[in-house]
Queue: 4 jobs
Job 1
Amino acid sequence: MTDASSPSATSVQAPRSSRDKLLDSAIACFDEHGLTGMTIEQIRRHANSSVGSMYHHFGNREGLIAALFLQLLDDQIARSRAEIDAATTPRQTVRALVHGYLDWVTHHPVEARFMYAARSEVATSSSAGSLKEKNKQRFGPLLAVLKTGVESGDIRSLPRETFASLLVGPSENYCRAWLSDRVSGAPVDHTDVFVEAAWRAISTSPID
Amino acid sequence: MTDASSPSATSVQAPRSSRDKLLDSAIACFDEHGLTGMTIEQIRRHANSSVGSMYHHFGNREGLIAALFLQLLDDQIARSRAEIDAATTPRQTVRALVHGYLDWVTHHPVEARFMYAARSEVATSSSAGSLKEKNKQRFGPLLAVLKTGVESGDIRSLPRETFASLLVGPSENYCRAWLSDRVSGAPVDHTDVFVEAAWRAISTSPID
DNA sequence: GTCATATTAGAATAATATTCTAGAATTGTA
DNA sequence: TACAATTCTAGAATATTATTCTAATATGAC
């Protein structure tokens, strides 16, 4: 497991908080039993904690799942941020976005599986607002870059609300398939294919 | 509600079986309470049935969810089949596939939301095999058409396992966003955008 | 009609989530 | 340091929900 499986980036020696131990345990129990199969009791025992502590930190089961989901989403965004910020051209930005996504899922398969399984639940929970915010945070700067591209004639003028789907849709679909064993090649190994597809979808001159 | 929300295509007057009433009730309860929130007791009451009947037909909660999922998947496949079979060129086939998907989700939003919510659970259940089979059934003929396209030079030679993602990934991503109220335009209204993107992704001459 | 099988019913049980009260640890403040 | 306020932990008690079980009822084959 990479270090990203510990929810918060603590130093090597720092004892993780009880809250973080519970989140770590939730991922472990999810991996073993699935989202529906994992129980409060399993998580509590794995973390050497108590149900009281659990409910103190997260309110209820849904709150635990939402907290874990949002923390992983933060990690996912943070890890591709440097790459995206370093990009100067629209094409580089697209590559950074797609590669960042494929790379994160490839190296955090359990976390990614959890996120796909929990997303629709989080989207209808009381944390739905935070989710929307983070999505804006993720795609906001990108949409700005694309807007200038549209003005300069490099990027096609398309319905704004379809851009994100055109860019990451194929990657997301492939990652889900990979995590369900429907395909075997690691997502990141198809970076060129998915970057090219994203570029073709939005570029005015798809074959440079 | 369209007629497709009744799981089996019975005639107008035919009294639905107890099994079908339970499946209908499950969709209704899902719509009201979400996948995690819907309970056996709610479904049973809505269907005027009993828990015994429930467990007789489906074994357990997971079995009910899987049965409903697979039945909806059948409906989804069946409804785009005519359009796909009628297509003669690769481009027409791609359009039929993408349009069929967008159209079904647009007109069966509750069913589609259920499928997205339940998919990862079904994929790890004992019905995972049936799911894989139906997916092959769906994309098998299509991959054959594409193969001839590759041989004739019209379709790019790409890793086989990425084709499905390139074709339906953006559509699926957009449909999820629509069902979560992150975008407002009905999926089917963006048919041209997503067909064009799919074609650009796989065609050797994307701008005809 | 009668047997075998499929289906339904609902009470009883088991598994699980959640609440609640008390106590321990921690933090802020004088 | 002392002390109060607050946060955190513990785990028994409770509530909710899924599942099992036994018996009764319908359905279909012969």
Job 2
Amino acid sequence: MDGAEQPKRRPRVRRGSGELTVADVARQAGVSPMTVSRVINRLGNVLPETRARVEAAIAALDFVPNPAARSLAGRPQCRIALLHSNPSAAYLSEFLVGSLAGASETDAQLVVEHWDGGDSPVRLAQRLTDHRIDAVLLPPPLCDDAALLAALSASNLPLAQIATGAPVAFADAVSIDDEGAAHAMTCHLLALGHRRIGFIAGDPNQTASALRQAGYARALRDAGLDVDPDLIVPGDFTYRSGLDASERLLSQVPRPTAIFASNDDMAAAVIALAHRHRLDVPHDLTVCGFDDTAMARAVWPEITTIRQPVADMAHRAMLRLADRVRAAASPDVRAPLHEELAFTLVERASDAQPHEK
Amino acid sequence: MDGAEQPKRRPRVRRGSGELTVADVARQAGVSPMTVSRVINRLGNVLPETRARVEAAIAALDFVPNPAARSLAGRPQCRIALLHSNPSAAYLSEFLVGSLAGASETDAQLVVEHWDGGDSPVRLAQRLTDHRIDAVLLPPPLCDDAALLAALSASNLPLAQIATGAPVAFADAVSIDDEGAAHAMTCHLLALGHRRIGFIAGDPNQTASALRQAGYARALRDAGLDVDPDLIVPGDFTYRSGLDASERLLSQVPRPTAIFASNDDMAAAVIALAHRHRLDVPHDLTVCGFDDTAMARAVWPEITTIRQPVADMAHRAMLRLADRVRAAASPDVRAPLHEELAFTLVERASDAQPHEK
DNA sequence: AAAGAAAATGATACCGCTAACACGATTGAA
DNA sequence: TTCAATCGTGTTAGCGGTATCATTTTCTTT
């Protein structure tokens, strides 16, 4: 041993979690870490052959980049709020599942915020920016609140409306064709042979309601039938309103042979009331709903309804917002995009051909 | 200018997002960044006076530490899976909201995973560890699946059972006192004056079912009443089963004056059937449920039920798991903790005193 | 074919925070 | 009084990526 004093520092203890890093992949592929990063992020200027080698290495090692490091190293953080008004809304869980999937895909953080209208929209916007929220996801019914939309937009927050009937110019929107779906359902009832079809409208404050009613009316007209105003009764999407509405419909003479409710809760109410009137569903009365929420399969008979791909919608909206937040600095701010996803008519047990008396 | 060549590198462009850092706080407080970190993480060995100064600086600047940097700098990552079997279960959204709150508090990542029993439990465990899941949150009914629990535990994954009736020794558990809650509800019915109280049992595969039934029976015995086996009918938590069960109860002579269903879906079915029998709820028949899911407020009259603080439960479980994952390296592995949260009896419109005929 | 432009890749320095260690100031024990 | 243990705080070196610039290679162009 020489007399020179040893350097004081000993080799530091590794803190690393032992997980793979870009360096491991780089070694395996015989390139530099930077090239690996380029491949991962699909940045151009990588020879196809190199890219292939790196991709092979990634696959071989089953490498997953560390999101924390990623976001720390320059990629802007991205916190997206899901603003809801009703924590027990039936669609919320599907909503969350979809958003969460989108969030983890884009390495965004999902923050669930609640707003019941107690604060003013402006205060809410303030609260959100204080919480460093970068964008907001708006499920119904909040997606149709004009004052809210205005306030959030004024705070320069990118917005996404989900399942709205009236997309605004300054927000992204993902929805289904409510009018078309209601049209399809009505056609389905017509095809079964129904001619007197009652319709229970939805909450007039939600934009989708009018669209659904329009689809119903168009289908009747297309079939050469008159739209009888007596067969259209108001509702507000609650079970209770469905009870009142169906009472009005079922007391008519002649009674409608089918009732199309604007959502499943009201459809469930129709079934309950029909049973109280000693009517068999679907033998004496066909009932159908809209949304395919848990209620549709909770009751008996299970309700024929329109399925909205809620999880998908939330997923798409999430990706779109993350994109927008990350691209905010760049010059090419894309115009808001209004996307329409396909709905499905799911036939269950509450519909049948009209019964000849 | 001197002739020496300028260093090639120019000052780098700042990539920072302009957000505050520990350094800013340190400057403001006149200490080093490390001391700020110590204060934030409540590590000991900081003079109270220094701590106060730092805390003041944090408050003044409204500083929030960057979670990405935090986890990158050593704190072990923490990915927790919420494993569910039914994406549209009524409680799932509350569940997610609570878990998400816990996740953001502890800087853990929540991953939602679905399992319908298609894969073997062992394969599932494999899949989870492949996805680098560190711990698993189990809501009902999965929290009672013995094979699943065994497989996950064998993979060394910390587990938390939520709302289970039978906590296992090797998992954390957060639940309510199902037996006590059922007892309380039954006492409530007795206090109203009911003596013939029907009971609809829950799915025998879920451990909470037996507890609820036991609570019902104990309350009757406490009141000096016999437990009439004819008044206890089986169910499986579905609306459909509630329909069958209540048919059996309502056809008895004398008819029960109250029916206590083990969950809200079945209670809703009781109401529907009662209406079909031209019975007014609650005038002719008192109905109550359990869980306080969306169904309880969807139907009319709204159902008197037992509220489980699902969001809180998920929240607590989440914190516990994050703790456990982070403490995994340390020697003092705490014993699993079984926690019991308070329930609430929420009175709505489906109960009343028995009506004298 | 030489010079120049463009493309591919590498090297370096961070992002914001904290583990590990260093070090001066107290405090306590011998 | 001297030396060691302790405490409070500062210093250094990463964590695992990526922005930026440097360098090398390849392809044009005249």
Job 3
Amino acid sequence: MKNRTIAGSIGSEIRRRILDGRYPAGSQLRQDGLATEFGASRIPVREALFQLEAEGLVRIHPHRGATVAPLSPADAAEALELRGTLEPRLLSLSAPRLTAEDFARADALLEDYAAALRDGATARWGALNTDLHLLLYGQAERPRALALVGSLLAECDRYTRLQLSTDNAELERADREHREIVRLCRNGHVSAACALLTDHIDHVAAALMAFLGETSGLTKSAGIV
Amino acid sequence: MKNRTIAGSIGSEIRRRILDGRYPAGSQLRQDGLATEFGASRIPVREALFQLEAEGLVRIHPHRGATVAPLSPADAAEALELRGTLEPRLLSLSAPRLTAEDFARADALLEDYAAALRDGATARWGALNTDLHLLLYGQAERPRALALVGSLLAECDRYTRLQLSTDNAELERADREHREIVRLCRNGHVSAACALLTDHIDHVAAALMAFLGETSGLTKSAGIV
DNA sequence: GCCCGCTGGATTTTATACAATTTCAACACC
DNA sequence: GGTGTTGAAATTGTATAAAATCCAGCGGGC
């Protein structure tokens, strides 16, 4: 997964650190510091920041520097609302065309997911969740929507990571629902799978909103590692 | 609308030229040429290209240069499908909250639109259409979806511009539908406005698909000025 | 005849150096 | 005491130049 260009690899690393929380929401990203940290010049760093801004993870204020995109309940709600609109539609298109190989990969991802769950490796959870969702929509032949959903999943992971630091039960529920969705798709019950997917996203949204609501100081909790 | 940074203004200019068709789909965008053309260095050009890639107007192949994103019927269909999914939802949220000032601006845009129609100034059409649509969704409080729809509208303009070079009747129909949508919103008939908007987008999609289908060689017609 | 590796040229990518802009704190002034 | 201004420091934005990469064409080998 290594990028052929330094800017690309720096961008991947910064993205990972933002999703990790190592670069907290709202924090300044100084080009010079990042450049020396990665042992490169500032220009690849600049390009990486531009790319990340396009993904919505970074905000660039002209002549005032780059900051990690802030977290807000409204933004999380909108991201999940868009996911709820787009993902079931993609699944309904993709599910009938999923191949045996796709299901094999889905099973592997579910296994990794369960292993990460046992090990308490919440760090791996986000990527696995994204991979599984995108895999299920891969046969929809909607590349633009797929890329968009990928970006939305990445951003939702930022919020979910906050939530997971206090509540692990959601992960097991997500695991059960993922397995059931895959099972329904495999057996050809497309509409049932889509309905469950809708419930899945709605529930994630509701749980996340409840979490964000009770921890009223979002900016404070955004600093969690 | 002038950007504070050279990269921003260069990006705006390149975007305009891509939408104009002055940079045809698939054509190479050489950094050196653009830099000398704009009287700047290559670095602002690079940053502008990165930003445009994020908008989907440019594709960057590492170490192989940047090309204008190709036009394909499948891509147009997906863009319009997404618009058909997102825009009615946005309108239903925004329409009840539109202010008198919003309607005044909408009327002004409709006037400009009609003037451009009389003058045969198809060049201005795209921006006016985008402005009107975005204005109608402005009160939805969905910034992410709004930005996404703006990007989709820009891309749809690339296709519509091809179509308009041979068929002007669609513009008048669009004008009538726009006026009716605004009238319905103003009178509080939100669901009717949303239904009409859905039809509006569906019809644009159908007309565009028919046009793209009959001019089988899309790559050829993509070279139209 | 066909495939493979190599070299020349062009283009992108990155590094270094410089200029423009913003920010913040000290300070005079109202 | 509050407010506007002004300077320097820090940071970003841009230009110039060097390094890495890729592609096309060509010659040699099988």
Job 4
Amino acid sequence: MLTDRQLIILQVIIDDFIDSAKPIGSRALSKKDNLPYSAATIRNEMADLEELGFLEKTHTSSGRVPSEKGYRYYVDHLIGPERNHHGLGIIESLTNNGIFEFEQIVQTAAEALSQLTNYTSIILGPEMFEATVKQIQVLALSNQSAVAILVTNTGHVEHRSFTLPKGISSSDLEKLVNILNDRLHGVPLFKLPEVIQNEVTSLMVKYMNGLDSSLNWIRALFTHEHAVKLYFGGKANILMQPEFNDVDRIRSFYSLMEREDEIVDLLKNTNQGIKVSIGHENEVDEIKDLSLITASYHIGGGQLGTIALIGPTRMEYKKVLSLMQSISKEMTGAMDKWYRDKS
Amino acid sequence: MLTDRQLIILQVIIDDFIDSAKPIGSRALSKKDNLPYSAATIRNEMADLEELGFLEKTHTSSGRVPSEKGYRYYVDHLIGPERNHHGLGIIESLTNNGIFEFEQIVQTAAEALSQLTNYTSIILGPEMFEATVKQIQVLALSNQSAVAILVTNTGHVEHRSFTLPKGISSSDLEKLVNILNDRLHGVPLFKLPEVIQNEVTSLMVKYMNGLDSSLNWIRALFTHEHAVKLYFGGKANILMQPEFNDVDRIRSFYSLMEREDEIVDLLKNTNQGIKVSIGHENEVDEIKDLSLITASYHIGGGQLGTIALIGPTRMEYKKVLSLMQSISKEMTGAMDKWYRDKS
DNA sequence: ATTTAGCACTCAAAACAAGAGAGTGCTAAC
DNA sequence: GTTAGCACTCTCTTGTTTTGAGTGCTAAAT
């Protein structure tokens, strides 16, 4: 329903605004190469585009600025074929020495993403629900203390130090660990608390006397929220954006960034693929004037994490989208390669 | 050299400014209870105090504001006996279930510190230099991959996933781990790279053939910077301070917060006890208009970490100092209790 | 039937002006 | 030594004017 000329004008306006952050007027537009029309003509078109809701004015006699609907249209229809970012190889370079360090990979990716865009990136670590117990070990550090270590089939390690119950013997401890390994091997993490409750407790009461209290730490070790973790990149970078020249906006942004559970919610709810939420399309008040791009990365085909980027609605969508695509692909690749052969 | 009256006036001015953040004039001061003098008298005293360098004016006819020298004097001489913050019990409540989770303790302490003050707190994790190797384990996850786990005598666990060298047999792997445990048990972390280089390498070449390349990951696992870690609390809280009403100041602050190595340097160089650095007493440019309080906490008597608090020079020194003292004592207590019996 | 030139009009932002208010320094009286 | 009084200074607020970019509309040109 938009004429070709309107399309071009819309595109040029948005492109210009994305990089200048200033409203643009008809006169300036008419000077652009791809718009061989007079200011007056463009004015008319702009008035139409405004009527259709793609543009806005900041005041009655100002230049035009893209509306959220404008950005939406831009993202959906005006972004060309993403020029291939041909894999930055950031992640690859981290794994090709044979070492696979999850935290490092994710953190590096988050930082790179922010560095390249000057927005703030957030990566949601994978949920470990489906990982299963590979081995449990308890290592005494002294007469009173020990550390318990749990390794999953995916190579994740959890550990917890604790004080030993009084009077426990090393043979008791060994027995205990044996029971645990016997019963818990292969159990997925999310079922752990349940299995411990139902199967292990009774066994332990049977074979070991007077150690009820010691069960606490076992439960604590394994009930531990296998919480998804957030990795931030360049929380400060976004401050370079002129949109953040206002102290209150900064405050509200950073206060949101500290409420990690809200952020997790924000990112979790993502289906596969890339999703762009512009301004008020976002649920959370604090980012109703920002845009949020999320992309998922998959591991092992099922579990997934999310890569996100937050910036002003005036975002370099073209660049960002192809970049996110690349990184998400790279992450998925690295994860796949690593997790593929783990049963 | 200061008269009693000047002392009181100085104190009142600083106290007032600390909580109002506004310059205070002679008239307002003369109305305070503990200053039964006329505005004119106080004006004279203030002029003297300014001449001595304890006060400043923001412009020729403004009220007075404490200078850095003023704050220094305040901190050194005018702060009364710290009312005992009688241990907030924050940390105790985390450990009395028998579980000792280092990260959790430190993170909680950092957050509490910031919460209670509305400044930003940073805690420098302990250096693990003196911890010694307790056990090394390598667990195969599949034919191609494994995870290596290192436990120290203090209960710290490091781990690293990696791809197995092609053609390594499980008996080779076992042999390898035996060698490692045999040679590395009891070796302090900071000596690890050296010992591996000198003792282990030759042994391995001797007993295992063709596995030179596999040494890479061993070295990588243990050479891993046992970097001290930073724990931040309330990076956003400091934004509530009126001093941070300026966007550029915020930018420079946050950009510093991201340069973690600089921060580590800043905190590392601390002798025992509490240290207050006011404004230009700080080395780093970005905080030359802020104050930094550092306190150390000790573990095992030797190694130590640092607790720090950053706020405007107009800081509630009285409250902060006693608070830092409490927390540092609590941390030291918890650590001591935990690490005492580990050889 | 488009496109364009011309012109009156609008509004934000910058520049300027006037007052008010808080505070000082100094002098002279207490 | 202390205080009252007063002239003076400087910021901050408020209101006014000017400027300039940009619009909408009408009428002419294509």
